[in-house]
Amino acid sequence: MKKIVIFLAMVFAVNFIQAQCKTKVVSAFNYTNNGYLDKAQKYIDEALTCPDTKDWAKTWYYRGNVYLQIHLSKEDKYKKLDSNALQVAYDSYQKAIELDTKKEYYQDIMLSLMVCGEQYYNKGVTLYSLKKYDDAMASFNKTATINGFFSITDTLATYNAALCAELAKKPEKAKEYYVKLINANYHQPLVYSSLANIYTSKKDTAKALSTILKGRKLFPDNYSLIIAETNIYLSTGKSKEAKDLLELAIQKDPTNPNLYFTIGTTYDALSNDTSKTKTGRDAFFKEAESAYKKAIELKPDFFDAIYNLGALYFNDGVRIFQEADLMVNDMTKYKELQLLFEDRWKNALPYLEKALELNPNDYNTLLSLKQLYSRMNQMDKLKAINEKLKAFK
């Protein structure tokens, strides 16, 4: 008789514990619905330690609901319960799907996951504004992943993830996202130029060009793609193809100062490329000079074009000066070069001074003028510039 009593007591104890565990799940559900999220969290976490409820799909589904509400709460006392509540909710729903073999909660879980996707997108926007690009990328990617559960290709979230990956200096991740976007036919020319730039940085000009050509087929009049294709041709020595493209761009919009400025910067960079021949660099210099002047003609207060043209003259003057410095034993050659570098600096002066007039607090302009006044021995102007530069210290 004693053995039976002990056995019954053990059965009662087991049943009591089971009932307690199930009660915790129900209590968590009720407290969530009534807005007592601290108590809901306590009971649902305790339910996960119970052998009889830790592997319930219902437990994990309710846990997802508790933590999603913590994330969504506007009250600090609940918001502080878990700073990673959104991730906990997402993981809980995933576990619930795994355990819900009969799909009792599947529809409700999927609706909740959709809310998670929206919240991850909002989180990504916030993190982006805080310049936490790595974390923002992960949030946008999570949104795209969740929408993938619904057979939705979220190109906007993927595009944002790609931009964040580039800003986070993760080109391989950015490439992965851009390829997904191209495969999804995302209608944005920047995707093609950005992916091409990544290939170019890896010295893979073949893939860079094929990517740009795909983009040009879809967006034949897009300037950024035309310029990107031009840059590839210029970097590979295909100057005729580059020239034809630039002429095409000008034909499409001959009064666009930004286009001429872009052409100027393209040739400007090539004029400073020491891997090019002197003849080639001189030709690039003239092309850059002409393009900048045209941009200024179309927009007389175009600060960037004015500054760049002044810098183009100044930098070329420094290059010639350094060349002349090696000719001190040949005064005839030195004087020839002296005329050239002094002429370059003389040409630079009005443009850099105009740039300062347009933007009196631009540090680069002040610094360029400091060097120019020093080289041209204009001491009064140098003193005035030095006074202005003190404000930056």
Key attributes of the depicted protein:
Serine Threonine Protein Phosphatase 5, Tetratricopeptide repeat; 4 domains; 0% strand; elongated; 393 residues; mainly alpha; 19 helices
Describe this structure in words.
With about 400 residues, the protein is mostly helical. It has 4 domains: about 10-105, Serine Threonine Protein Phosphatase 5, Tetratricopeptide repeat (Alpha Horseshoe); about 120-185, Serine Threonine Protein Phosphatase 5, Tetratricopeptide repeat; about 190-240, no CATH class; about 255-393, Tetratricopeptide repeat domain (Serine Threonine Protein Phosphatase 5, Tetratricopeptide repeat, Alpha Horseshoe), CATH 1.25.40. The protein contains 19 helices and no strands. The protein has helices spanning about 1-35, 35-45, 55-70, 75-80, 85-100, 105-130, 135-150, 155-165, 170-185, 190-200, 205-220, 225-235, 240-250, 255-270, 280-300, 305-325, 330-360, 365-375, 380-390. Helix 7 runs antiparallel to helix 8 (about 155-165). The chain is elongated and about 100 Å long. It starts with a helix and ends with a helix.
